[in-house]
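Box 3.1 A note on notation
Throughout this textbook, protein chains are presented in two layers. The first layer is the amino acid sequence; the second is a token string describing backbone geometry. Keep the layers aligned when reading.
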Amino acid sequence: MAFIVETFGRLRLADAEGNDIAFPEKGLLLIAYLLTLDKNAAHRTMAADFLWGNEDKAVSLSNLRKTISRIKARQDQLGAQFLIFTDTAVSLDPASLTADFTDLPLPGDAMPRLAKLTKAMSHPFLGQVNCQSGVFETWQKDQIYRHSGLLQDALKAVSLPVESTEDWEILRKAGLLVFRDEPKDSDILRLLLEIFDAQEEVDYIRDYIERRKSSISRGLEAVAPNGANGQHKVEARPATANDGIDALPLNKIGRPAIPRLVLLPPRNLSSNPQSILIAASLIEDITIGFCAFNSLQVIAPHSAVQIGHQNEDQSAFFERHSVNYVLDTQITGFDEVKLFAQLIFFDDNQIVWAERFSLSQADLLRDRRVISRRVALSVSSEIERHEATRSYLELNPAAYHQYLVGKQYLGRLTLPNLRRARKEMRAALKATPDFAPALSSTARTYSKEWLLTARGDMELLKSAEEFATKSIEARNDLADGYREFGVAKLLQGAFDESAEAMEVAETLSPHYADVIADHADTLVHCSRPGMALQKIERAIELNPLSPDPYLWTAAGANYALGEFSASLDYISQMSDPSLADRLAAASWAMLGNKDKARVLVRRVREANPNFDVDKWLSAVPSKEQWHKDLYREGLKKAGF
């Protein structure tokens, strides 16, 4: 009998006629995993880590032994031996079955290959499997990334135009899938525009964006004044090939305001001394490429190199030459050398964009021009976006000043600071009632107060939601309103609405560290700690002097993954670790150090004598029961 493992949509074992064949889910996951390994084999410890993560090794291996017993029994019933077990290893007989994801990179004509990939990737890889392992999440993400690359390559290989209706439908579907994964890839964007323009259907992209935002609109309509509908959607327009290149921002009095950019020579933090020469040459290519853009002015490479070696004079140089943006670059890595680039807005030392690029010899020889163009287009686009936001802020100078004062208090999460911040935001709103940044920041003060007081006061969350809604009404193209709406919805247990709001916020500002950090926090509460940890690490990379909420989120993600020592390490880096005393106490208790846990329990009791574990856990949202149970276990062991 022929068997096939299907992984797109849902994970299942099927026979040649497509009928479901019962088989342990963990066994199917092992099969999929082993199919991606060179020798289709793994040590038992590796297999246990993949299926259960880095919890207690003895527990993982015990779970594996039980799973192996069930798999062997089922294989005997089927008369097939997919998985072979020894005392030390797990291996797969690849001739015993096929899998739908192993033959995706088909040779031959581009269109059949594209059709197969599009059909498969229209469904999520592995669907809703029950596996909370961080190792699994990383592997799954790598496979999705590989599939996306295959789809992009197949799409680029198709010769345009195509004639048949069926082929155009495949192109449409493939184009939207690629746009979902790579919305800012300039080469893909131009290809998509060629596809859609040929059919006069650029609206497909608009419709895709609108669908992503529709749930936010529905959530906002519920709290909209006078029952107004449809006021809060993000206005989407078809992208154009000149986006981020030809459009000139205006300053507050209506004249063109051309920002100035300097690209500093790269610093070598890698183990490869040769890579600095390659990267320096690449940066020169990028700088020369910028000279063709009319949306910004670029300091010449010679001057940039000179100032790059004089750290003490850099600020004076930037001020003297009216430099607004600095592209700082580093060479990083040991086994794989990469270029790390970050765009900094010099006026307030804000990171507005960052990315890594491979500098392996093969990649560089093949992709040097692509990398240069991608950096140039990305940086130009981010500068245009940032300049538009600045123009809006500068139109409201009185409100902006009060907002900046209030924002300083939001940096440290204490009740007195939150209330000072709210007072300053009210002053900003008195000057300009529809000033969106002050509205969203006011929303934040209420949601953070709800967290710190731990009383489950729903009125605080309703106030947060109300101010977030007003912020989106005022400016629906800024990320902060959606971010605060997402936080308020999360704390009310509306996980899907929260996740949608955070996705919109990150789409609007994909390099905004605070938004990425709150998206990570949402994922923690959605019981997806592996993905949350990846996002919060990205936020910390963008904002290395991380505020306490970043570190708190990273600690929570690690706790949910069973990495209790790592959780405590992040808490220890907080400027005010007492904010996370409950989490720290639970972590110490799970590590078996009850003395340290009890010290923290006493401190929590002093600050909040009425703290009750069950009441608190009923108020704090966690999508999956295992997540809440893990937190309860730690708190109870600690002595709460």
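The chain has five domains: 3-102, 121-201, 211-239+395-510, 260-391, 517-640. Residues 361-394 form the longest helix (34 residues).
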